[in-house]
Amino acid sequence: MEDLQRIIRAHPFFAGLSDAFSELIGGCARNVVFAEGDHLFRQGEEADALYLLRSGQVALEITAPGRGTMTFLTLGPGDVVGVSWLVPPYRWSYDARVVEPTRAIAMDAHCLRRKCEDDPALGYELMKRFVPVLSQRLQAARLQMLDVYGPDG
Amino acid sequence: MDQMAEPRMAHPLVPRVAHVRRRWRDGPDVWTLEIEDGAGSGFMPGQFNMLTVFGVGEVPISLSGDPADGNRIRHTVRAVGPVTRALARLRPGDPLGLRGPFGTGWPTDALDGRDVVIVAGGLGLAPLRPAILQLLARRDRIGRLTLVYGARSPDQILFARQQDRWGRRSDIEVAVTVDHATSPWRGYVGVVTTLIPRAVSDPANTVALVCGPEIMMRFAAAALTDAGLPETAIHLSMERNMKCAVGLCGHCQFGADFLCRDGPVFRLDRIARRLALREI
């Protein structure tokens, strides 16, 4: 458990997290390993975890009828995968496919949500870390939507 | 009589005739022309020429070849309008009109001892290619060298084979990302700005050269300043509708500057305020 807490604190997403909070969320964490081609999760499934990537590469994908599967973001070491666990109805809205063998810390969403409800200070700490990620991804999505390299770019 | 013996300077508004030597495709609708320019006198990376297809029109196109290649110059063109489509149709031996080189270049002579981050988007790699080649030719004089490149999709990556070759070298780091991809692509997907933080390790000693669509450059400049680079260390190549290329006609006016004469390469601190203005 102590080792998991050390890994969590060493991950860029939780850099500077206090001992008390890392002990709290450490109880929700477990080490996971995925092989190339595995899925962390698929669109429509319950968003029951978030993943702190330690190595490897994961592609976030959407499949559209007639257009096949489209990758819209790849994530690697130091990144966090999954924000749908924060927002009802807690369902993944895309697939997360492993492109390169991946090691991660998986954090149980039910456990995290319960601890955040019990300790609003922990909830606020997590929000301060997730909102910048959401903001960066929203900004990136806007740029992708603008299709800046297209003929009108 | 003595006056007659003086070599005549070519008038900057009068094209000289040059000939296409080779042409090849570098992407969907993107063609590179190798041109024999017998009257050429060299160029600085980042400069542009005015190319004329006789009977069709004239367009400004950046030089994309190696400055060390002498009179054998290259231009990389996306065929999107009447003149660029006509340029892309030229065959070896065909004549074209050529004026230039014009404009300011990348500050490659002022990079000794510095880390260099090159951020390119789409066709914006073409004006940066001469700078990369020049820096690689004197690689021992600069610090870490990184190319961060973004394209719309894997099939639209410019100079893909050359980027692969650069990526296999140990003296340049190459990170390529695309905005969208389908399954066979195993590289990065996401906007080019996401790769910038890991390309900057010593911001106080890093210089960035940026070229691409203007909105991409705005976000890249913001990511570079977020990474700790001062505005004075960020250089952008701007694009406007250049016509005369010598600062007379005003078509490419950008606030107080004419892009053809005072640019296209500007330091960010000179133009940062104007980048945020509409309709300029």
From TrEMBL, chain A:
The name this protein goes by in its record: Cyclic nucleotide-binding domain-containing protein
GO molecular function terms attached to this record: DNA-binding transcription factor activity
Cited PROSITE patterns: CNMP_BINDING_3
Pfam families: cNMP_binding
GO cellular component: cytosol
Residue span(s) of domain Cyclic nucleotide-binding: 13-114
Lineage of producing organism: Bacteria, Pseudomonadati, Pseudomonadota, Alphaproteobacteria, Rhodobacterales
From TrEMBL, chain B:
Cofactor: [2Fe-2S] cluster
Keyword flag RNA-binding: no
Binding site for [2Fe-2S] cluster: 244, 249, 252, 260
GO biological process assignments: pyrimidine nucleotide biosynthetic process
Listed Pfam families: DHODB_Fe-S_bind (PF10418), NAD_binding_1 (PF00175)
Domain (FAD-binding FR-type) ranges: 10-108
Bound cofactor: record note: Binds 1 [2Fe-2S] cluster per subunit.
Keywords for this protein: 2Fe-2S, Iron, Iron-sulfur, Metal-binding
Family matches, as InterPro entries: Cyt_c3_hydrogenase_gsu, Dihydroorotate_DH_Fe-S-bd, FAD-bd_FR_type, FNR_nucleotide-bd, OxRdtase_FAD/NAD-bd, PyrK_electron_transfer, Riboflavin_synthase-like_b-brl
GO molecular function: 2 iron, 2 sulfur cluster binding; flavin adenine dinucleotide binding; metal ion binding; oxidoreductase activity
Protein name per UniProt: NAD(P)H-flavin reductase
Native source species: Jhaorihella thermophila
Phylogenetic classification of the source organism: Bacteria, Pseudomonadati, Pseudomonadota, Alphaproteobacteria, Rhodobacterales
